[in-house]
Amino acid sequence: MSLLSFREVAKTYGVVPVLKGIDLAIEPGEVLALVGENGAGKSTLMRIAAGLADASAGTMLLDGAAAPATLQAAERAGIVMVHQEFCLAPHLTVAENVFLGREITRGLFTDRKAMETKARGLLAELGSAAPVRARLRDLPVSDWQMIELAKAFARQPKLILMDEPTAVLSATEAGNLFARIRAFRESGGSVIFTSHRLDEVKAIADRVAVLRDGQIVRVEATSDISEDEMAEAMVGRPLAEIYPPRRGMAKRKVLLSVAGLAAPGSVDDVSLDIREGEVLGISGLVGSGRTELFEALLGLRPAKCRSFVLRGEERKLPEAREAWALKLAYLTEDRKGKGLLLGKSLDQNVALTKGAITGSSWIDRRAERRDLETAVERYDIRTGRLDVTAGALSGGNQQKVLIAKTLGVEPDLIVFDEPTRGVDIGAKQQIYEIIAQLAAAGKAIVVISSEMQEIVGLSDRVLVMRRGRIAGELSGEAISENDIIRFAMGLEETSPQEEAPH
Amino acid sequence: MTDMTATTAGVAAASPGRSLVRLLEAAGPLLALILLMLIGTVTSDSFLGAENLSNVFTRSAIIGIIAVGATFVITAGGLDLSVGSLSALVAGMTIMFMNSAAATLGDGWLLVIAGIAFSLAIGAFAGFINGFMIVKGRVEAFIVTLGAMGIFRSVITWLADGGSISLDFSLRDTARPIYYGQVFGIAVPIIVLAVIAVVGELTLRRMRFGRHVAAIGSNRHVAFYSAIPVSRVRILTYVIQGLCVAIATVIYVPRLGAATPSTGLMWELEAIAAVIIGGTALSGGFGRIWGTIVGVLILGFISNILNLTGFISPYLNGAFQGAIIIIAVLLQRDRSQG
Questions:
Q1: Given an 8 Å threshold on Cβ–Cβ distance, is B215 in contact with A341?
Q2: DSSP B192
Q3: Per-position b or e across A96-130, b if 16+ CB within 10 A of its CB
């Protein structure tokens, strides 16, 4: 009998269907991978399984009986979720976090010694030597992930749900986690996990279920499906088609040239050229300093450099507002936290940066309205009414508003940081189209992305970062996922300065 | 998936039932004020008299001017607890300045203008120091202004040696019209409040600066990433607050002609209460000056009605005000920023 099974499970938020007719079962002692694009419904399915969300329709069975519907009941029944965003208390110690809500007690008091010993053991099983008495806030995020995992295993579950567990882990740490998952499987435990790294799915999962637009489009034993087939099932069409056609490799003028850029703790001695009409892809693992590099370049974090030559003129590193005035734009990866005022109207959002740089003291509301109408038209922002707040739009449309806001200052350099995160496939294609058009119009484009295919599909040239440095450069036909990964993992080292043609 | 949830909220927001709720929410403070005035009219004969109304407006003007400044600070996501103490300090120092400058500047309008300039300078400077510590020193606004509140209060107590600092009798007549004067039959404090409120409302609604204030209160990171000069704008809101306190104090000084260690006691709470009752979000991101003025009047009329009618002891004034603040926040609880 299956451990957990979904029958015709559906979930809608208001009128928007997120999951449709999901039929899926996981056996005891099985590792199941859920893959799909952002917004395909993976996290929602996990949340339903963990008792964090209710299904709108359908049934969910645990050991043949109705599955628990609340988080507490699910935990009692042996289902534990490891979240993508950490659910840990920064001011408590590692041991206290591992046993949070399940403290071992002796009489009236918590048994600190016992918890510390057990926590140390649980972490050792994951190959982690995180100090159990240290406070969490003093530890790096990779330790947090391990502690989150140790916390899950401490509850002696039957089923662990892991949402992107390896996103912040190094290759070695991920390897340790996989060893632990295999041991857990040997002892009869089951795991459902999501990952964007299909090679991991291939390596650790017994079966893979591919979600697209809220439906399961393919379930296979991982031995019967290749990574490319998974990717194509996720996207729903051959991969090449969603990317705009490549442009010729004309000789391009350098817009910005920086040497010896360093930001404390994140970027170390980086030199690079950014050229007009070129899409420069920036790849690397999470935490390799991709975002930090460009925040440092555009005055968004403290940094220094040996030289900064913009349009042929040497100058100092710009401050945040200066960078905008110099027509250097950064489009943040954190749409909700740094990009848009979700509670404010669309026209205010679109006008924000432009108004702050070139606006007059008095606000011209009519002009703002016109700008919004133009943006809605040009970027195909789909909203029933124009007077809604930015938070009322879907992820893809929010992203288009953010693009409209950023391009409102008519920049010459646009750094797109994760331009398609949390965006559905249709909007994704439109965003690629916008990027290609900007490049064709002679703008210098930088695309930072965790999605390897996006980097390969969009870039004329790729810089791969590793530990705050540029680990390798690839251009034109030589751009391949395989080489990017090798640079990102540190399997190959070249000096980009030697390779870069000037 | 949160994107989807957001979509649902947007759909709901567009429905007619929701827009009625929004309208009530927008006009809520005004309705409360009208209700309060009806109660006043029914319970007291003298309530609607020109003298009584003028009295309430004039008394409310001082808190009102301070509260306009507080609206800027709170809309930007800040807080200033030091306004009451600052008012006492400005009053004391300005009186000392005027007393000593009378010898050189005479006791005419020149002295009054110098006194006003002096107090505005102190107010702006104190506001700048508060803002600078909060923004550049990265200390919580609550802590900085709590500290400032204690410092200002004890400095004025020390300057007054525990007693009071009085404006020389020879100067009182010169300063008197600032509080007691009338223009076209309207008391000067009311006119000053009206001008400041209109300028404030226009600044907050129609000017780029006001847009930036609300954007910073709504999400400081978004504001920074949108090229808004976040530090400058935040510091400026505290400077505006300091200037408003100084203006209010200039009007207040001629009323009593003295500053004491208890001048301006609890004014910070009344000002913040007025701002919140008026519908400005305590967490920042949305503010309206007209609401603040309505809030000030609500507080003023409650105390006025209790004094006039005698059904309920005026000693319970604070209890009523407290209850109204809690109710106001309860009503805006569900509203997200903006």
A1: yes
A2: H
A3: bbbbeeeebeeeeeeebeebbebbbebbebbebeb
Closest CA to A485 of A202, A208, A200: A200
**A388: nearest CA in chain B?**
B10
Distance from CA of A96 to the nearest CA of B (A): 29
| The residue type at B318 | G
pLDDT band at A494 (very low <50, low <70, confident <90, very high): low
Question: Residue for token digits 């799915």?
Answer: A201
- Of A323-332, A444-453, B15-24, B150-159, which range is least confident? B15-24
Could you read off the pLDDT of A119-163 as tens digits, one per residue?
999 999 888 888 888 888 888 877 888 888 899 998 889 999 998
Classify A466 as helix, strand or coil: strand
**Res A492: pLDDT:** 61
Average pLDDT over residues A2-14: 86
Q: Count of A–B CB contacts within 8 Å? A: 128
pLDDT digits (tens, 9 = 90+) for A325-359: 999 999 998 888 899 998 899 999 999 999 888 88
A209 close to A49: Cβ distance less than 8 angstroms? no
Residue from the list B3, B209, B221 with its beta carbon closest to the beta carbon of A394? B3
pTM score, whole prediction: 0.78
The span from the CA of A110 to the CA of A121, in Å, is 18
Q: Which two tokens stand for residue B169?
A: 């009798």
Task: Count the neighbouring beta carbons within 10 Å of the beta carbon of residue B320.
Answer: 17
Give ∠ CA B269-B272-B275 in degrees, rounded to 5: 150
What are residue B151's phi and psi, to 5 degrees? -65, -50
Q: How confident is the model at residue B13 (pLDDT cuts 50, 70, 90)?
A: very low
Q: What's the pLDDT score for residue A29? A: 92
CB A153 within 8 A of CB A118: no
Q: What DSSP state is assigned to residue A306?
A: S
Contact assessment for residue A312 and residue A478, using Cβ atoms and an 8 Å cutoff: no
**A343–B218: do the CB atoms touch at under 8 Å?**
yes
Contact across the interface for B208 and A391, Cβ inside 8 Å? no
Asked if A16 and B14 come within 8 Å (Cβ–Cβ), the reply is: no
Which of B2, B3, B202, B218 is the best residue to mutate to test the A interface, defined by the most A CB atoms within 10 Å of its own CB? B3
Cα of B130 to nearest chain A Cα, Å? 24
Q: Which segments of A233-378 are extended strands (E)? A: 254-263, 267-275, 279-284, 307-310, 313-315, 328-331
| DSSP one-letter string for B258-279 | EE-TTTTTTHHHHHHHHHHHTT
Which residue of chain B has the CA closest to A327?
B227
Q: Does A341 touch chain B (CB under 8 A)?
A: yes
- At what angle are helices B230-256 and B109-135 packed, to 10 degrees? 140
Answer whether A385 sits within 8 Å of B336, measured CB to CB. Answer: no
pLDDT at position B16 is 53
pLDDT at A502 over 60: no
Rg (CA), chain A: 24
Nearest by CB to residue A361, choosing from B208, B221, B225, is: B208
Interface of A with B in 368-397 (CB under 8 A): 384-385, 388-389, 391-395
CA distance B270 to A441: 57
Helix (H) or strand (E) holding A474: strand A469-475
Torsion angle of C-alpha atoms A484, A212, A340, A453, degrees rounded to 10: 10
Calculated CA dihedral for residues A337, A342, A344, A347, nearest 10 degrees: 90
When the pLDDT of each residue in chain A is averaged and rounded to a whole number, the result is 86
| B138 vs A: CB within 8 A | no
Residues B10, A393: C-beta atoms closer than 8 Å: yes
